[in-house]
Amino acid sequence: MVKSKATQEFVEIKEIRDGVIVLKDGSLRSILMTSSLNFALKSGDEQMATLFQFQNFLNSLDFSVQIFIQSRELDIRPYVALLEERHKAQVTELMRIQIREYIEFVKNFTENANIMSKSFFVIASYSPSVFSGGDGVLSVIARRGKSVKLNERSKNFEENRTQLEQRMSVLEQGLLRTGIRVARLGTEEAIELLYKMFNPGELEKPISLNN
C-alpha cells in the first residue's frame, strides 16, 4: 500500500513570523504589495521618464527579487451583500426597486464580462548561506525536497531579518521613486495570500453576511 504524503511536506515554508516567511532551509522572504500605473494614459515623455526611472531602479539592485502578479476572478459577493443590506434599510418602494434592479445588473454584468482583479507583489529574499536556485517565494515549490545545511550562527532570526529589512527598504524607496505605492504584508496578509494560492477553490465558498 502506497503511503500518501501530507501536503505540508511539499511546501517548503516553515513558518511566518512578524510578516517574514521562513523557509525550511533557513532563508527568509518578505512581500511588498504594490499599486499599478495606468501607463497608456501617460504622455510619451511621461512614459519614457517612468521607464527610465524603473530601469535605474532595477540596475541599482545587487540582490535578486521576484515580481509576482496574481490574477483572480473578481469576487463581488461582499459588494452585493452590502447592497442587500441597503435594500432592506430602504423605506420607500421606489428606492427598493431601483436597488434591486441595480443588484441584478451588477450580477449579470460580472457573470457575462468575466471581470478579473489583479494584485501585484514584489518579493525580497535573504539566504544566510549560499546555495543554488531561485530566490522567489514561489520558487520554493520547485525546490521541494532539497535541504541545505546552515551554519548554526546564521540561524539567528533577528540578525537575518535585519539583512532582509535593508533589502525591503531599498525596494520601497526605489518603487516610490517610480510613482508606485507600496505596502508590506504583515503576518495575517502573508498567510491569506499563500492560503489563496494553495486553495483557489475557496473563492467559490459562500460568505457569511453576518461578518
What's the layout of helices and strands?
Blueprint: E1 13-17, E2 20-23, E3 28-34, H1 44-60, E4 65-73, H2 77-89, H3 93-113, E5 116-126, H4 157-177, E6 182-184, H5 187-198
Helix pairs in contact: 1-4, 2-3
Domain TraC-like: 18-124
Protein name: TraC-like domain-containing protein
InterPro entries: TraC-like_dom
Describe the structure.
With 211 residues, the protein is of the alpha+beta class. The chain folds into two domains: 153 residues, no CATH class; 40 residues. The protein has five helices and six strands, in the order βββαβααβαβα. The C terminus is likely disordered.
- Overall number of structural domains: 2
Question: In total, how many beta strands?
Answer: 6
Number of discrete helical segments: 5
- Which H/E pattern describes the elements? EEEHEHHEHEH
Through-space gap between termini: 45 Å
Q: Radius of gyration, rounded?
A: 22 Å
Main sheet specs: 6 strands, antiparallel
